[in-house]
């Protein structure tokens, strides 16, 4: 196969062979088996929005063609490699079924490694029932909600697969998602996303594959304690209903996610080395998706080949604090992502089609240890909890979400249109200034006004909701070059350990951890 990159393609083009033919001045009939491998939207000029694509194709006399056209490359496919074990007696327990834990357990199971995946929440179908019930009634299930359960917090999000990390494992992850039910367009879109409605089936199918390959999956099973001797792991305790089960893993992978605060506390008390980490807090902003489309695409806003437009903004305020958008969800909705009694936290979610009326994004400002109450390693968690309790009270103390018109927050003239905020189980108009310190409010407000200079109208005709407090983990675990913590036999991974941010980077981290384990086991088998 030959690859050609950075080809401008009009939105209405259907014949890719013709496009390549014109690029190379080669007969269209000689070009075979064309495959679209990358597609991005170029909307820098609103009067000429188009795609920028990369293609792979077959053609006779490849060597001669490549020498003649320097823009062409010969495609060398390097499949993802992992060692397959012939036999071993070790038992690996992976705690947490988010992308890091899921891909770690998936890779271990298909390599014939004995593995048990332990998840404190419910399997995804039961989890969805619990979340829907919460949205309907306001009854929160503490271990089965938007944060906890099969697939982790990412299952009920937008399912973004973008990452700045350059890694050979990305293609394998995308192909694995597709093999288990994701839309094939994630293989070529520049900004791929799965969507919550598809992710529910993807994580379920990956779980079934783990079981098919000999792995075990335990739901409604919470890690509540670990036991060590001479800085080495000996036992763990799992709570299942009213039962406490003692297990003796040879290795324990901690993919606990960024919201398992009770587990953080337990691990800290048991001697794992943890330090506080900067993260970001702020609000969710909602606009009409039609407004975002019109700004980004101009006269092409309603073109059937264009998906709901996104944006990514970052500004620096006069105080030196950065304010930026995060987890932008085109054609999505804001959801109540509470997981603790007496706390409200919001996030964004989109289905695969991204066809809801509103667009939403987090507007965040970075906070760090200097903003926390003290220097305790878990002080960032306390900072988050205080914000979430304030949001709970501002919302009425019944898990309704506090909301505010952006004009009221900024004290500017009211806009002409009203964006309807439909966060469930309900919303309450409130003064969001009461959530944050004066310094954070000042930074957010200045940031919104600066963003309005980049997208005219951004700071009007919008609704704000809060609080967005779990953009990333507030801690970072120590681990060495083999991914082990200061207590040997324990492997902290993923976003909850402070080593990833999002589905793709977490999945990569999970795969890397599985490789360290498999390589070690493979050496033992050969010795």
In short:
This protein has 527 residues and is α+β, with helices and mostly antiparallel strands. It is built from twelve helices and 23 strands.
What does this structure look like?
The protein is of the alpha+beta class. It folds into three domains: 2-74, Alpha-Beta Plaits (2-Layer Sandwich), CATH 3.30.70.2700; 91-275 and 474-526, FAD/NAD(P)-binding domain (3-Layer(bba) Sandwich), CATH 3.50.50; 278-468, no CATH class. Helices cover 28% and strands 25% of the residues. It has helices at residues 16-24, 62-68, 99-110, 124-137, 170-179, 196-212, 261-269, 289-297, 379-394, 406-410, 438-452, 503-526; strands spanning 2-9, 32-42, 50-58, 72-74, 91-95, 114-118, 216-218, 221-229, 232-240, 243-247, 251-254, 274-276, 279-288, 314-316, 322-329, 333-336, 346-349, 358-367, 401-405, 427-429, 463-468, 475-477, 490-492. Strand 9 (232-240) and strand 10 (243-247) form a beta hairpin. It starts with a strand and ends with a helix. The model has no long low-confidence stretch (mean pLDDT 95).
Mean pLDDT: 95
Q: Can you tell me the CATH architecture of the largest domain?
A: 3-Layer(bba) Sandwich
Total strands: the figure is: 23
CATH superfamily of the largest domain: FAD/NAD(P)-binding domain
Question: How do the strands and helices of this protein lay out in sequence?
Answer:
Layout: E1 2-9, H1 16-24, E2 32-42, E3 50-58, H2 62-68, E4 72-74, E5 91-95, H3 99-110, E6 114-118, H4 124-137, H5 170-179, H6 196-212, E7 216-218, E8 221-229, E9 232-240, E10 243-247, E11 251-254, H7 261-269, E12 274-276, E13 279-288, H8 289-297, E14 314-316, E15 322-329, E16 333-336, E17 346-349, E18 358-367, H9 379-394, E19 401-405, H10 406-410, E20 427-429, H11 438-452, E21 463-468, E22 475-477, E23 490-492, H12 503-526
Parallel strand pairs: 5-6, 5-11, 6-7, 11-23, 19-20
Antiparallel strand pairs: 1-3, 1-4, 2-3, 8-9, 9-10, 12-22, 13-18, 13-21, 14-15, 15-18, 16-17, 19-21
Helix pairs in contact: 3-6, 3-12
